[in-house]
Structures are given as structure tokens and as C-alpha cells.
Design goal:
Number of strands: 7
CATH architecture: 3-Layer(aba) Sandwich
Order of helices and strands: EHEHHHEHEEEHEH
Bound molecules: flavin mononucleotide
Strand order of the largest sheet: 2-1-3-6-7
Number of domains: 1
Shape: globular
CATH topology: Rossmann fold
Oligomer: single chain
Helix content: 40-55%
Strand content: 15-25%
């Protein structure tokens, strides 16, 4: 069985516009990929380990090219579990709204936890090597505004950041399904979500 890890970064549950698109993707994905399991990680309900002094100390040990030892390794247990859970997946689905032109803080928190030297990337003589290669990612997102014009595109720190950080760890096959604008009237919102749902279903079939 292959595994799709579904990472949720909106706290809005049944009211979420993003998850309405995700629902269409998953319905179509389950029908066309019966050999895949889908595991859900809801970042808004699951408590993530904080990056306190001790845990950040561990990061510098790893950055220095050393192994974690003793109490530092203990302090890192939850972080390592999240990294292992991330690496146990063959593909990822991220459901996230745009928040302040970027991603909600829970998703940034998750990224700060899992993107670790020795685990998700390593330094080689040829440069940085991502250790999560050969995995696909789909990002389903909705935005209150519209970021398609030349004037507005520079405000979008969400898509470029997610492409960069997951590309850094080796995931280069990333497709975005974007619904926008969702906060400029019900008509535009419903049209945007309907268009995104059609795209999401088609993407799930050819995934
Ligand atoms: C804290 C917060 C910040 C937001 N920041 C932005 C923003 O910078 N740009 C934007 O277009 N929409 C912004 N929005 C609107 C959401 O992106 C939009 O309503 C989205 O469709 C919500 O998706 P959801 O229902 O799945 O959570 C923000 C919403 C919240 C709650």
C-alpha cells in the first residue's frame, strides 16, 4: 500500500473553503487509487512540539555535523517521530489557506519541525541534497484575494515559499490547485471553488 499524507492547515473544519476543494480531490483519488491509504495530520488540532531552547540546541548539534546524544536525543523524540511520519509517506496533500500573504503559522511550525539536517536534507560537496526525493505533492489552497495580475503576483509569498522549502528537501513535483478570490463576494467565491473542484478531481485521476 502507498501512503498519501494529508496535512491540514486550516482551523475552519466544515466551514473551510479549502477543504471543499480537498473533498473533491479525495473523493476522486479514493475512487481511482484504491491501493493507497490516506493518513490525516490536522495541524490545527494536533499539538506540535515547541522549538524551545533544548530542541534548538539539538538543531545546532546536527548542523555542526554531529549526532544527537543523551538528553538532547530524548528532547528530540517527538520531532523525530514527526519526521519519520513525514518520510513514511509516498506523496503529500497540503490543504492550506493563504494567511497574511503566506501560510498559517501551524504549517510554518510543522515545516520548522521536520526540515532538519541529516533527516530531510544534507550537505554534500556538490551542495545541499534533499532526502525526501521521488515524492509528489499537491497543494490545495484558497485565498480571499486574487493574485494573478502582474500587480498582485508579488504579494503571493505562499506558492513560491512552499515550492522552495519542499524543493529544498527534494520534492520538486508539486502541483497547486488554487481557488481565488474567496472573500470578494459569494458569486466569485462559488465560481472559484467550483473551478478548483473540477481541477482537483482531474488531478486526482491522473495523480
Ligand atoms: C488570519 C487570516 C489571514 C488571512 N490573510 C489573507 C491574505 O493575506 N490574503 C488573502 O487573500 N486572504 C487572506 N485571508 C483569507 C483566506 O485566505 C480566505 O478566506 C480563505 O479562503 C480561507 O480558507 P479556509 O476557509 O479554508 O480557511 C486570511 C484569513 C485569515 C483568517
Amino acid at each position: 500500500m502507498k501512503k498519501l499524507l494529508h496535512v491540514i492547515a486550516t482551523p475552519r473544519g466544515d466551514d473551510s473553503r479549502t477543504l471543499r476543494i480537498t473533498e473533491a480531490f479525495l473523493e476522486s483519488f479514493q475512487a481511482t487509487h484504491p491501493d493507497w491509504v490516506i493518513e490525516e495530520l490536522n495541524l490545527t488540532t494536533e499539538e506540535l512540539p515547541s522549538l524551545n531552547t533544548r530542541r534548538v540546541d539539538g538543531k545546532y548539534v546536527l548542523l555542526g555535523g554531529n549526532e544527537l546524544y543523551g538528553s538532547l536525543r530524548e528532547a528530540w523524540q517527538e520531532i523525530i517521530s514527526h519526521i519519520e511520519r513525514f518520510l513514511s509517506a509516498d506523496a503529500y496533500l497540503i490543504s492550506t489557506p493563504m494567511w497574511n500573504f503566506s501560510i498559517p503559522y501551524v504549517l510554518k511550525h510543522y515545516i520548522d519541525i521536520i526540515v532538519q539536517p541529516r533527516y530531510l536534507f544534507r550537505y554534500t560537496e556538490a551542495g545541499v541534497e534533499g532526502l525526501a526525493q521521488n515524492r509528489k505533492m499537491v497543494v490545495i489552497t484558497s485565498r480571499g484575494g486574487q493574485y494573478t495580475s502582474d500587480e498582485m503576483r508579488p504579494f503571493d509569498y505562499q506558492e513560491p515559499y512552499l515550492r522552495m522549502i519542499f524543493g529544498y528537501v527534494g520534492i520538486r513535483d508539486i502541483e497547486f490547485i488554487i481557488a481565488q478570490p474567496t472573500d470578494m463576494g459569494t458569486e466569485l467565491q462559488e465560481e472559484a471553488i467550483a473551478r478548483a473542484r473540477v481541477k482537483a478531481k482531474a488531478l486526482a485521476v491522473r495523480f
